[in-house]
Amino acid sequence: MVKDSTKPRALAQQIHEALKARGSGSRQGHRPSAQSDFGVYRDDFQAVLRQFKKPLKNEDPDFLYRLSDDLVSLENTECRRMAYELLYGLPHSFQSLNKARVEFLGRGLDNWACVDNFSLNIAGPAWRRGSLEDKTLVSWSQSDDQWWRRAAVVATIPLNLKSRGGTGDVARTLLICEKVVEDKSLMVQKALSWALRALVPIQRASVEDVLKRYESKLTALVKRELKKKLRTGKKQ
């Protein structure tokens, strides 16, 4: 199937149709969005990902970027996720990414699931690889858009989580986390808790210091989850 596609847009449409065929109905109540969704469950999504990823392993990085761009343009949550998963699963694709392209792939982010997928698979790894500068993530953390602020915080996770290739980066994690300590968005506060909890196995003393220095500014949710993580090693 893939070999017959001569343009990224044509291939993006094939992927769209493959995802649509496996959909079980919209689940917008789970993550409200202006984008459409097919309600594709994890196993079905992974089956489509495997179907298209293997034939793409030798494609040019620029082709992979254009394919992902076309998938995002379809304004569908599963297609957007597929764009991010394909790039992450084909590491050589990151050779084509820069600030402008990463931010363009993030256009239209409007729900936590898509933001987290973008940050874990694109923004975080691109930052870790040097395709994004620290100042770019700082600018996101100060955006008027809560979803870009959440994206900046969640992008610290791949710096620290071993399963995401992280080896630990206390300085850059705190650089972003300290920018959003007083953020009023619940979505950003939940991301802050997540980011700091991911830092505990790397350097718990730094997290304890954050708790101490920002005791009066951190929300009850963040303090509760961090103290639980420090005490038991678990969130709940």
Major sheet characteristics: none
Alpha-carbon distance between the termini?
A: 45 Å
- Uncertain runs with pLDDT below 50, 5 residues or more? 1-5
Which percent band covers the strand fraction? Answer: under 5%
Task: Specify the structural class.
Answer: mainly alpha
Number of domains: 2
Number of helices: 12
Structural shape: globular
CATH architecture label of the largest domain: Alpha Horseshoe
CATH topology of the largest domain: Leucine-rich Repeat Variant
Average pLDDT value? 94
Q: What is the string of SSEs from the N terminus onward?
A: HHHHHHHHHHHH
Q: Total number of β-strand segments?
A: 0
Task: Round the Cα radius of gyration to an integer and report it.
Answer: 18 Å
> Helix content range of the residues, please?
55-70%
CATH class of the largest domain: Mainly Alpha
Description of the structure:
The chain is an all-alpha fold and 236 residues long. It has two domains: 1-96, no CATH class; 112-236, Leucine-rich Repeat Variant (Alpha Horseshoe), CATH 1.25.10.90. Helices cover 62% and strands 0% of the residues. It has helices at residues 8-21, 42-53, 61-73, 77-89, 99-105, 112-129, 134-141, 146-154, 157-160, 170-177, 186-213, 220-232. Helix 1 crosses helix 3 (61-73), helix 4 (77-89) packs parallel to helix 6 and helix 10 crosses helix 11. The longest helix is centred in the last third of the chain and has 28 residues, at 186-213. Residues 1-5 have low confidence and may be disordered.
